[in-house]
Design brief:
Shape: elongated
Distance between the termini: 117 Å
Order of helices and strands: HHHHHHEHEHHEEEHHH
Radius of gyration: 37 Å
Largest sheet: 5 strands, mixed
Number of strands: 5
Strand order of the largest sheet: 1-2-5-4-3
């Protein structure tokens, strides 16, 4: 009998003995035995805790830091910073409480563009912050608006002010308007700083931010029902920043002091007639070369003088 045959017979005998023993044992003992055998196989794969600790202590500090914080490229770090910053200031600009409340005005307005206008709104007002701090909070999204408004054809950015503190009178509202525009102007990335100009109340001045010029309209609860800035029962006051280029989006003709009241043809004439027919006519300047600052805050009565809100 050769050596191989002897080994095979010996191995077979051992297998038969093991199987015979397992058959006679209870099933739980068989299960525990199997688990024991398997553990003997996997145990060498896991070094003892003491061994892991020794390996960790053997690593230098820079090696540990490299393991915990893998090196990122400058581009990856910039993206991480940008993403984190956006999370801090981002909110749904097309669905804010300010826009919801402003619907009272936009739905009832006699302006044919008001109902379909694409607006971005200011975030919820924080009572514990000053007016300037609240405006400072929304600057990132206002800046984003100036970037997106051209290609997305956005019509306006809305800022809502609590009425009980800033809009109980035309004087308080005018002062609040100045503070809002000044805060935005002081943080203008385009560095125009338009609110620092000496000719704000004169012809040629326009509000500008990030190289986008704006036509600004305001609404407040103190305006009577026959006023074009009437707020239709809205509790708060509003500052609407409309990019001047948005007039081109709607093919609005060039401004003119002349109006065809009997047979309006142009969109501008139709809007003027609509306001007049609703009992809320607005004064049309005798010349297109008039101060833009006068249009931002209209007097309560047309016979009243302009409140010079820019003169703090």
């Amino acid at each position: 009998m050769d050596l191989f045959t002897k080994i095979l017979i010996a191995y077979s005998v051992r297998v038969i003995l093991v199987v015979a023993i397992l058959i006679t044992l209870p099933w739980k003992l068989v299960l525990y035995f199997c688990i024991f055998i398997v553990s003997l196989y996997f145990l060498p794969m896991f070094p003892p805790r003491s061994q892991q600790s020794q390996d960790r202590r053997a690593m230098k500090t820079k090696d540990i830091l490299s393991e915990l914080y893998p090196r990122k490229t400058d581009a990856e770090q910039e993206k991480m910073f940008a993403d984190s910053l956006i999370k801090l200031v981002q909110y749904d600009v097309e669905d804010t409480p300010s826009l919801q409340r402003f619907k009272t005005i936009s739905v009832n307005s006699n302006c044919s563009f008001a109902r379909k206008a694409k607006l971005w709104g200011s975030p919820a007002w924080q009572e514990g912050l000053t007016l300037e701090d609240n405006i400072y909070r929304l600057i990132p999204m206002f800046l984003k608006f100036t970037v997106y408004c051209v290609h997305d054809k956005l019509d306006a950015f809305l800022i809502e002010l609590p009425c009980d503190e800033y809009s109980t009178s035309i004087e308080k509202f005018g002062d609040a308007i100045y503070r809002v525009l000044k805060t935005l102007s002081d943080n203008d990335p385009g560095e125009m700083y338009c609110m620092n100009k000496s000719y704000i109340g004169k012809r040629g001045w326009v509000f500008e931010f990030n190289k986008i010029t704006f036509f600004i309209t305001t609404f407040a609860p103190f305006y009577p029902e026959d006023h074009p800035r009437y707020s239709f029962g809205a509790d708060n006051s509003y500052i609407l920043f409309q990019p001047e280029l948005s007039f081109a989006f709607h093919d609005l003709p060039s401004d003119t002091p002349h109006t065809n009241w009997e047979e309006p043809v142009t969109v501008r004439d139709k809007i003027r007639v609509a306001f007049k027919d609703a009992g809320r006519p607005y004064k049309i300047p005798d010349s297109i070369y008039h101060p833009m600052s006068d249009e931002i805050l209209r007097p309560i009565k047309e016979t009243d003088s302009i409140y010079e809100w820019w003169k703090r």
